[in-house]
Design a protein that fits this description.
The structure is a single chain. By secondary structure, the chain is of the alpha/beta class. Helix content is 41%, strand content 10%. The strands form 2 sheets. Strands 7-6-5-8-9-10 form a 6-stranded parallel sheet, sandwiched between helices. A 4-stranded parallel sheet has the order 1-2-3-4, sandwiched between helices. Helix 4 (93-102) links the parallel strand 3 and strand 4 (108-111). The relative contact order is 0.14.
């Protein structure tokens, strides 16, 4: 539709833009920093300007069992702030039932799944130079800012009064899982020196830790600047522990391996959509050709409860696009020249004022 202007913009720039844009649809890829922790001034500003919020949270796959999911969701989101004209997009029927049971919702809820998973159903099936892609996600045991970021007791995001046991158990659990993956990578690389292994750490992790560890192992490459869909499309197999890459690999029909022993405390869907790989059976990783080894019974028992995208007939992208199109039909339009002008103005404020102030703030802390 030529009357609809779509602006894709970084989170902080979007916040600045909300001062100038009114009567618009704001589509949230987790664009609230802490909606559970009084981060509502931004939201009130959008609503005061006649805006509509179509909100989807970036995380929907949680560790542990249902009781653990509930605790995480209570601490993460406060959907009762949304108004009648807003729409809350959810990953699963379970999530929808949880919010409708535990919050007084005024907004409409839609089980959409997450659009980002759709692209993995159509990844290229040929040209795979990576024999193994290893994705790590160890933000407690290998945080990019060191242990002091989490365990100083001064970081408000890590509450030692309430969650001390959880924080330490997460650290111990991840330390074991990280050690298993590092040992596995070393053994595979040593046993199969002609196989190319790509180790791709999570953005929150310390990249140099792995670069230093595997510096002398020539067939292990450590980097994370390649988009995950590109890395997956080049990979013959995947190894992970508790990472959503298992879902993406499953949808792309790429065999994915994990340790059932060390992955027990992570998101169960990442275990159920993966094949167990004992460290003494590393040759098995080169025998499996697809994710078809995963039992349909296991998927229907648990995984379908967590993520709508596992339904082969469902398209999150189409559903969300239709919702955004319908929501925008009631909003006022702007000239494209006006949109471009205020984006330039906002970007200048962002670069000249926002970032220098933020850098000074962090340096002073």
């Amino acid at each position: 539709n030529s009357n609809i202007v779509v602006v894709i913009i970084e989170q902080q720039l979007l916040r600045l833009l909300s001062f100038l844009i009114t009567n618009a649809v704001f589509f949230g890829k987790h664009f609230f920093s802490k909606p559970r922790h009084k981060d509502d001034r931004y939201y009130r500003r959008i609503k005061k300007g006649g805006g509509i919020v179509v909100y989807i949270h970036e995380e929907g796959v949680f560790s542990g069992e249902k009781k653990d999911w509930e605790k995480i969701l209570f601490n993460t989101m406060k959907p009762s702030i949304f108004h009648e004209d807003d729409i809350l997009l959810l990953w699963s029927e379970w999530q929808k039932s949880f919010f409708e049971t535990n919050f007084k919702l005024k907004c409409k809820t839609v089980v959409s799944g997450h659009p980002r998973f759709d692209i993995y159903k159509d990844l290229p099936k040929t040209n795979k130079p990576y024999d193994i892609l290893v994705n790590t996600s160890f933000s407690y045991s290998n945080h990019g800012q060191g242990l002091s970021f989490i365990f100083s007791g001064k970081n408000p995001s890590y509450n030692f009064t309430k969650d001390k046991n959880y924080l330490f158990e997460s650290y111990f659990s991840q330390t074991s899982s990280q050690s298993w993956i590092e040992k596995l990578v070393f053994r595979i690389a040593s046993t199969f020196p002609n196989k190319i292994i790509i180790l791709r750490p999570h953005p929150s992790e310390n990249l140099d830790h792995y670069k230093t560890l595997f510096k002398t192992i020539r067939n292990v490459k450590v980097f994370r600047d390649e988009p995950i869909e590109n890395a997956l499309s080049k990979s013959k197999a995947v190894i992970q522990v508790g990472c959503t890459t298992s879902i993406e690999a499953f949808l792309a029909n790429i065999p994915c391996y994990t340790s059932y022993e060390y992955g027990a405390n992570r998101a169960r869907i990442t275990k159920d959509l993966s094949i167990d790989l004992p460290i003494h059976s590393i040759e098995e990783i080169f025998k499996s050709k697809s994710s078809a080894l995963i039992s349909d019974e296991i998927i229907s028992k648990y995984s379908n409860l967590v993520l709508k995208n596992l339904d082969p007939q469902h398209s999150s992208t189409d559903q969300v696009a239709n919702i955004l199109h319908q929501s925008s039909a009631s909003q006022n339009g702007y000239r494209v020249s006006f949109i471009i002008s205020i984006i330039i103005l906002t970007s200048l404020v962002y670069l000249i004022l926002y970032w220098p102030i933020k850098i000074l703030y962090y340096v002073s802390k």
